[in-house]
C-alpha cells in the first residue's frame, strides 16, 4: 500500500524519537503513549486515546505534534459533547449562499486544507446526529457540501475521551460504527498512584529543585498518595495544581516557608470537593510530627514572574483580607481561595446555597485590587444562554459574507471576568467555552481572537458534584477551574447572625444592638424548626432585619413588636416555610426576646382600649334606632365585646407565660399587667 511520507516536516524514521523526546520532557509513563502516537503518524491512521480525566491526553498529543514540527495552524482541535450539532461540525452555515441552498463554511471546520492532524475531544459524548455523518466522512474522506465535493486533507484524526468505550459502545450503533474508524486505541492512565509516582511527576516540573524543594515534593507526594482510596484517586492534573497551591502558600507568607498549614490548601483544588473523608485529619496524618519549616528557592517555584495583576503580588493577601473581613463573617476560606486565584493567577469556582454573597465578595475584592466596574466583565448564564450571546452576538456588518461575532462585547478582552450561575447554561454554550478556556484563543470565523482574561471567577448556587455526574460538558468545564470552594457558613446559630448584623451596622446604638440580638435569636430558632437543609441565609436575615426596622418606623412605633418581626414572611426564600411562623416566633421570643413580647402586649392593649371605645359608640348609636335595626346594632356590639374580652384574656395568658428575672423587665411586666387589668376592669364596667 502506498504511503504518503511527505506530509510531515520530518522523515518517518525521526517520528518515534522526536515524539518520545517531546513527551519525556513533561510527562511520566509516556513511552507507551509516544509509541502509539508515532504509529498513528507513521501509518498514518486514526487513533483513540481514552481513560480517566486529568492525565493530559490532549496535552500529550499536542506536545508530540509540536515535537515533530507541526505548527498550531496545522492542528485542528474541537470539543464534542451533548450539544454538538452537525451545523457546528461542518463550520456553520455559509451565509453568502443561504439564498440559494444550505451550504457550510467548511473553511472553519476540520476539513480546511491547512489542517494535517485533527484532535476531537470527548468525541463519543456527541449525539448520533453528529456522529453518523462524521463516520461517513472519515470513511470516504469526502464531504458533500451541497453539490460540491470537499476533500478531507487531514491525515490523522486523534480522538480523546474520559469515558471507557467498552462501557457505552454496546447498544449504540452510531458510536460503534465510528469507533471502527479508529484503527489504533489506547487507554491512558498510570499503572500506579503511589508516592514515588507523584514524586517523579513533580521532578519533571522542577528538575532543579533545591534540597528544601525536594523535601517539600517528597512530603506532598506522601500526602497525596495517602489521600487516594478506592473511590478517589488524585489525577496528575490535580496533583500539579496541589503543588502550585501549596507552594504559593510559602510565597503568600512572604518568607517562602512551607509549614504544615500550607498542605491544608489542597482542599481548594478542583475535585477535592467530592472527597468524603475528613480531609484535614488525613492530611495531618501523612505529615511528620513536629514543626515543618522548608524554605523554598526560585527553582522550586513554577512561576517566579512578578505582579501579573494590577496590584503587586506581595499586597494581594492583605488587600483581599482587609476588604472582606470588614464586611463579611465566616470569610476566611474565601479569602484564602481568592488570594490563591489572584496570586497564581488562575480560574476559581465558588458554589453553595444562595444568599451568602459569593458575587458580592468577589466584586468587593476586585474593586480593592484596583479594577473599576467598567473593567470587570460580569455575565449571568442560564438555560437561555447561547453561543451567540457568549461571544458578543453576531457582527451584523459581515452577515452577508460569514458568521462572525462582535467579540469586543464578550469576556475575551477583559482581565477580570465573573460568570454567574454558570452551571445552568446548556451544553451548546459550555462546550465552546471549555475550548476557549483551554486554548485561550477563540476562532472568530477564520480569525483567532486571544483571550486576555487572567482570572475567571464562576459563581453558582448549584452543587457541581451533582451536575458533573449527569453532564460531560459540565464535567469537562469544571476541570478548567483549578480552584473550587463551597461557600456556606459553618454554623447558623444566634451568634452568627449577631456577628452578621454587627458587620452591617458597626455604629448601631445599644438599643439597636439589643433588637439585633433578639432578631438573631428568632432567626436561629426558625432554622431549628425547619426540615433538614433549610437555613436562613445572610441575605434573608439582613433583608428581614431591614423590613422589621422599617415596619417600626412606618407605623410610628418606638419599640419593635411581633408584627414587625413577622415581616420576614415577605422576604424571598421564606415563602416555602410550611410551619406557622408566628407561633414559632412567639415561642422563640419567650426564650430570648421578652422585650418584644412586652412591647407587643402594650401595643395591643392600646388598640383594645380603642376598640372598647368603638364598641361603646355602637351601643350609644343603637339607642337612636328603633325595632329590628336597634337589635342588629346591639348584636354587632355584643359580638365585638365578646371578642374584646377574649383578646384581653389572651393578653393575660401571655403575661403569665412570660418569666423574667431582670429587675427592669420585672418592673416593665408589672406595669403591663397593671394596664391590662385596668382595661379588663373598664370592659367589665362597660358591660
Automatic annotation (TrEMBL):
It holds the Pfam family bpMoxR. Residues 16-189, 320-488 form the MoxR domain. It comes from the Bacteria. InterPro entries: MoxR, P-loop_NTPase, RavA_ATPases. PANTHER family: ATPASE RAVA. This is ATPase RavA. It comes from Rosistilla oblonga.
Amino acid at each position: 500500500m502506498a504511503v504518503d511520507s511527505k506530509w510531515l516536516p520530518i522523515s518517518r524514521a525521526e517520528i518515534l524519537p522526536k515524539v518520545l523526546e517531546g513527551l519525556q520532557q513533561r510527562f511520566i509513563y509516556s513511552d507507551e503513549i509516544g509509541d502509539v502516537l508515532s504509529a498513528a503518524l507513521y501509518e498514518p491512521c486514526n487513533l483513540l486515546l481514552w481513560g480517566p480525566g486529568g492525565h493530559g491526553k490532549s496535552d500529550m498529543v499536542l506536545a508530540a505534534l509540536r515535537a515533530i514540527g507541526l505548527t498550531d495552524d496545522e492542528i485542528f482541535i474541537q470539543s464534542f459533547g451533548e450539544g454538538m450539532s452537525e451545523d457546528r461540525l461542518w463550520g456553520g452555515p455559509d451565509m453568502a449562499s443561504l439564498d440559494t441552498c444550505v451550504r457550510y463554511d467548511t473553511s472553519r471546520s476540520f476539513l480546511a486544507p491547512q489542517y494535517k492532524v485533527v484532535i476531537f475531544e470527548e468525541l463519543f459524548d456527541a449525539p448520533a446526529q453528529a456522529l453518523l455523518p462524521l463516520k461517513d466522512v472519515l470513511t470516504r474522506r469526502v464531504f458533500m457540501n451541497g453539490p460540491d465535493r470537499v476533500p478531507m486533507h487531514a491525515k490523522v484524526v486523534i480522538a480523546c475521551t474520559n469515558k471507557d468505550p467498552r462501557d457505552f459502545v454496546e447498544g449504540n450503533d452510531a458510536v460503534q460504527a465510528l469507533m471502527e474508524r479508529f484503527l489504533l486505541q489506547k487507554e491512558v492512565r498510570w499503572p500506579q498512584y503511589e508516592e514515588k509516582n507523584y514524586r517523579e511527576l513533580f521532578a519533571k516540573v522542577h528538575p532543579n529543585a533545591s534540597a528544601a524543594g525536594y523535601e517539600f515534593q517528597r512530603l506532598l507526594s506522601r500526602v497525596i498518595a495517602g489521600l487516594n482510596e478506592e473511590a478517589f484517586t488524585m489525577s496528575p492534573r490535580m496533583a500539579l495544581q496541589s503543588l502550585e497551591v501549596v507552594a504559593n502558600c510559602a510565597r503568600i507568607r512572604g518568607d517562602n516557608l512551607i509549614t504544615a498549614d500550607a498542605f491544608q490548601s489542597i482542599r481548594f483544588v478542583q475535585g477535592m470537593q467530592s472527597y468524603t473523608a475528613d480531609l484535614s485529619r488525613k492530611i495531618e496524618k501523612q505529615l511528620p510530627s513536629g514543626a515543618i519549616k522548608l524554605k523554598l528557592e526560585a527553582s522550586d517555584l513554577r512561576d517566579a514572574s512578578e505582579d501579573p495583576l494590577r496590584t503587586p503580588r506581595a499586597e494581594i493577601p492583605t488587600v483581599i483580607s482587609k476588604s472582606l473581613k470588614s464586611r463579611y463573617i465566616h470569610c476566611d476560606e474565601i479569602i484564602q481561595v481568592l488570594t490563591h486565584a489572584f496570586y497564581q493567577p488562575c480560574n476559581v469556582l465558588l458554589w453553595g446555597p444562595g444568599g451568602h454573597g459569593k458575587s458580592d465578595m468577589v466584586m468587593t475584592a476586585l474593586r480593592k485590587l484596583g479594577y473599576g466596574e467598567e473593567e470587570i466583565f460580569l455575565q449571568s448564564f442560564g438555560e437561555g444562554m447561547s453561543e451567540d450571546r457568549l461571544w458578543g452576538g453576531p457582527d451584523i456588518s459581515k452577515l452577508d459574507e460569514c458568521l462572525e461575532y462582535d467579540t469586543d462585547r464578550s469576556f475575551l478582552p477583559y482581565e477580570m471576568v465573573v460568570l454567574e450561575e454558570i452551571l445552568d447554561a446548556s451544553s451548546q454554550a459550555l462546550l465552546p467555552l471549555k475550548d476557549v478556556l483551554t486554548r485561550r484563543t477563540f476562532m472568530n470565523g477564520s480569525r483567532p481572537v486571544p483571550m486576555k482574561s487572567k482570572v475567571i471567577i464562576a459563581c453558582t448556587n448549584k452543587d457541581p458534584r451533582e451536575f458533573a455526574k449527569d453532564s460531560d460538558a459540565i464535567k469537562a468545564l469544571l476541570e478548567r477551574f483549578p480552584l473550587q470552594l463551597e461557600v456556606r457558613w459553618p454554623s447558623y446559630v444566634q451568634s452568627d447572625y449577631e456577628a452578621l448584623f454587627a458587620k452591617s451596622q458597626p455604629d448601631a446604638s445599644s438599643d439597636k444592638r439589643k433588637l439585633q440580638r433578639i432578631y438573631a435569636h428568632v432567626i436561629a430558632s426558625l432554622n431549628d424548626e425547619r426540615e433538614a437543609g433549610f437555613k436562613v441565609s445572610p441575605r434573608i436575615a439582613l433583608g428581614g432585619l431591614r423590613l422589621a426596622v422599617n415596619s417600626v418606623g412606618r407605623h410610628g412605633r418606638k419599640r419593635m413588636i411581633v408584627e414587625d418581626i413577622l415581616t420576614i414572611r415577605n422576604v424571598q426564600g421564606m415563602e416555602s416555610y410550611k410551619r406557622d411562623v408566628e407561633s414559632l416566633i412567639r415561642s422563640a421570643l419567650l426564650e430570648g426576646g421578652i422585650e418584644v413580647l412586652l412591647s407587643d402586649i402594650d401595643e395591643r392593649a392600646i388598640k383594645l382600649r380603642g376598640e372598647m371605645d368603638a364598641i361603646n359608640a355602637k351601643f350609644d348609636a343603637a339607642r337612636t334606632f328603633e325595632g329590628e335595626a336597634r337589635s342588629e346594632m346591639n348584636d354587632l356590639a355584643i359580638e365585638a365585646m365578646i371578642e374584646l374580652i377574649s383578646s384581653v384574656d389572651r393578653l393575660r395568658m401571655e403575661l403569665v407565660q412570660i418569666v423574667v428575672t431582670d429587675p427592669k423587665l420585672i418592673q416593665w411586666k408589672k406595669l403591663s399587667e397593671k394596664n391590662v387589668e385596668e382595661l379588663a376592669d373598664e370592659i367589665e364596667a362597660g358591660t
